[in-house]
Design brief:
Elements: E1 10-11, E2 20-30, E3 34-43, E4 52-54, E5 71-72, H1 86-103, H2 107-116, H3 118-133, E6 141-144, E7 152-160, H4 170-175, E8 177-184, H5 189-196, E9 202-212, H6 228-238, H7 245-258, E10 267-274, E11 277-284, E12 295-300, E13 302-303, H8 306-311, H9 316-322, E14 326-330, H10 336-345, E15 350-354, H11 378-389, E16 394-398, H12 402-408, E17 417-420, H13 425-439, E18 444-449, E19 455-461, E20 479-480, E21 487-488, E22 495-496, H14 501-519, E23 527-533, H15 535-541, E24 546-547, E25 560-566, H16 567-572
Parallel strand pairs: 6-8, 6-13, 9-10, 14-15, 14-17, 15-16, 17-18
Antiparallel strand pairs: 1-2, 2-3, 3-4, 4-5, 7-8, 7-9, 10-11, 11-12, 18-19, 19-23, 20-24, 21-22, 23-25
Helix pairs in contact: 10-14, 12-13
Amino acid sequence: MDGKGAAFVKRSNRLEARRKAASWEFELDHPTLGAHIVQLAITHDFPANTPQVYFPASLCLKLPHIEEDGKFCHGVDPSPNDYDDPCKVIDEVLKKLSQFWVNSINPAWVNAEFQRECLAYWSRFCYLFYRKNGMPTPRSVCAVLMPITQVTEGRLASYRAKEPGRAASRSDKELRSTRVLTTMGSADPHAVALQHGWSTGTLVRGDALWVPLAPCSSWTPKDWPQSLDELESLVRMASGDKHSVKEWLTEKTEQEAKEKTAGRYRSKLIVLVQGGTCYGYLITPSFIPYLTAPSIVPVEIERVDADWALARDYDLTLLRGRRNKRVLMIGCGSLGAPIAELLAKSGVSELHLADKEFFSIENCARHVLGAEHIGMAKASVLADRIRRQIPGVKTKPLRVLAADWVSQVCSPGSYDLIIDCTGESSVRTVLSRFRERAFGDVGIVHVWLEPFGAAAHTIYANSDLPWPYDDPWERVNAAHWPQDVRVKLPACSSGFNPYGAADAWQAAGFAAERILACLNLEVPESMVWSWVRSSAYFDKLNVETGRTELIPEKGSIFDSCYVTRSLQTVLADE
């Protein structure tokens, strides 16, 4: 750059930022935006990071791909070859810059680029609005989006952290909320906040107006309102002149006066929805009520609904189909607990978790729960954990004996699927004996691990071919184990089968995939699925077992295989 490049660039005289090793400047002329000085910089870690290009920060939101500090996003990634030929990557960056500058002359290209990544530019718009006006914004604004086709009212909950010794205006208090959460219709945002542990601070209720924008409508920086009048025009246009922000605000103000809550301002939020993306405007109260107009503050909105949290809006037909499912999970141990979490994260909306046991310190080695849960009921803690961590799911803990619950409480139509993760013969027998009276024609899944995590099995038994009363589990297993393989503890009937958390969780993933197929109605007949480790793994155990043909003859302990069999075939084998 200091040699042949000196014909069109010169060393920068500006003070260098800490990360810049060297920089050069040159001038680019634009037919509508005029001439601008552009800086090319390399950092101290070059070529691990590519050269950086900086425009004047004033071009942010005037041209795409320019950040608020002026940095140009050229899209050139570092390559291993850059160490041998560093000049090549500089040349590539300059070519990208040249092409960008040519494209930027075309208004249609500029608008298309802004539209393509409008959410990223909206974030910069909100930041620059805040920096220009000096108005604080909430740390987090979240929304539970539902399908929307017309302007819809909603509810809002904001949580304000106390700042002792600091006086603030009403609008300042509104904007200093630590979190704002909005929902559509009559859904209570505070209930959502309580469920997920977001309700920190003083609760202030409010109102929201959700406005859908046409998917094909332009939504670029030139379209974004910067005043209440501009927001009013946008909403009227989007609603076919059927709705008015100002009339809505007046209506809410009069309602607050009638309810004698005018002294306690209710937060107001306008949510603009295009496709699956939300953009927000907080309405700040009038500085002098009834004399001055309210102001607007653009805010970023993060969606927290299940469609986005669990699927990012991808393949929602499948997700929403699972949302109508209610599942009974029997056994919340090291295998049942991760399966329950996987089902919830896959969209199953209601889980009833049955387990009578309490969590003990020795469970920590392979359970999703930990030492803080010692002495607590497994079903209750797991239900609370899933409900708090995963949006859109309902859980019901059942600290009961499986036999009592199945024989005395359950009735046909209560559940869409029954899952037994106890690994206990007695539970499998109870489910078989009472299945018609308790569950009707609903399918039942049995999941268990063999000792040492040597194999895992998932059995789906529908009403056409149910699991037999005599519990023929040995026909499913990959090996016949000695009776003393179970580790005994110095207590009555106390002991455990040896395997670790990695074994349990690997088996849980294997089982959950097949359970979801059952819920999706993709399994027409009773099936047995097995995941079996290699013969080398069995050799390593140094335990005498009667091996079956399911075990693959392979030389590595890390090899395994999947085997799919019909239940009818398994039961027919002698």
